[in-house]
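User: Teach me something about this protein's shape.
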Amino acid sequence: MLSHLSIRNYALIDILDINFPSGMITVTGETGAGKSIILGALKLVLGERADYKSLKNADEKCFVEAEFTLDRELFSDFFIQNELDFDPITIIRREILPSGKSRAFINDTPVTLSVLHSLTEKLIDIHSQFDTSDLMNEKYQLHILDTYSGATLDLKKYQNVYQKYVFENSRLTSLKDKLLLGNEEVDYKNYLLEELNTAQLDSINFVEMENELNLLKNSEYLAQILTEVKQILDNDEIGILNQLREVSSRMDKGSQYSTDLMKLSERISSIKLELQDISAESEFFLERLDFNPLRYEDLTQKVDLIHSLYAKHKVTTIEELKQIRDSLSKDTSDLMNLENQIQACQDTIKTLSSELTKWAQDLHTKRKTHVPELENKILTILSHLGMEKSKIEISIQKTDQFTANGTDIVNILFSANAGMSLQPIAKAISGGERSRVMLAIKKIMSEKEALPTLILDEIDTGVSGRIANEMGKLMQQMASTMQLIAITHLPQVAAKGNSQFKVEKTEKSGETQTQIRLLNHEERIEEIAQLISGSDITENARKQAIELLK
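Assistant: First, the predicted structure itself:
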């Protein structure tokens, strides 16, 4: 249950601290006193959107802190799953910074709003007079039936399968789109891949190929050069080697008389040996320069192919071509595998569809079974609230379409008065009737849901007299198993509370502020008397207030 609420720097609230007891709590106050402000602050703790405009002082942060008393058995799993420290007195805090950013904490640990909301939806339910429109919502009508029939666990199992079903269908669409797009490109990609494979990139040394082609292309010119070199070196009369032999012979003779000449002679001999080796290698190279037209044509084709691939793919190395080839190979392989993936996905969807059909049928059966009992329960409560002539029919239509809530379409048909035909509930009830129907449903659901706190914000709007008294009694019954906070303008309801708070505006230092205080018995008499007679409280109104409190 909600045990304490602290509000700082929010709207018309500077500082506000409220301790909430258990049982039925009624909250009264004039219209515009600030009940909605306190409720708005509490909704921040529940995870609603924060607005920096709510800051009373724009230069300071605002925070709302709610303290809840929790049952370890009911809530420990949530704290374990979200790696939070459990405390039987759990504090939930929401901050709005002057920058507009907001932060949320559970027991001083920062959490996301989704985690915050997943906890608070199990702790507190706020129902305002405007929320009666939920009755018109097919999803909410289905929620009522599922809560009463105990189908919520079955629905979760169905939804687990449904999420997979939706994912696989989305994946199937994506795969088919990819296949369609891929089929349009596959021929071109296969052509590029075949062209790259033809180049045999893994088995060539492109530098060597280009060198060899250069030799073949210039073989005639090179043969002429080598022939001339041979003549210069080996000519019997003017050849360099022949002249070196003459020089060497003379030096050998002179070296007998001088060590310096001996060294020169050795250097000439070394040069002569080097030139003889060059002559021999030139002759060997000349013999190899045999132009092969077939080889020349083959190399030309290969080198031209590589250069054309460089230009086509805008690269400059064989390694880059290999990377492109491997990528194309993977793409074409993936495309070929897409059909297998599509078939596997279709098989999965078929299996999931069978599971969904089973769970949807179980949900339908459970819902259908509990409809008569729920109808009678609602009518019984409504008869105590002055709607004895009401009729209700909960229609369930089974479809072939899977939705997040099964295959059922639920529609509540209603008639408030005798002689009126059943119509969709949105058309069949007025404001006061709608409040009573909603209270009846809240009463039934409170018996089925382990909800610690329920806040009813003027749900009794549009009723008075005996009906208001009966609504107050119904709230008292509900408060026997939960904490119920009723914001009301009706004296009959206000008097039913185990405790009563009053919201009022005060002026401090020229500023209007909202405050709330717990009323003692005498103050309750005055407040309820004022609700009865207005601003001029009569003795008769006080007597009525005392009787109501009894």
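Now, about its shape. The chain is about 55% helix and 20% strand. The chain has a mean pLDDT of 85. If you'd like, I can walk through any region in more detail.
User: That's plenty for now, thanks!
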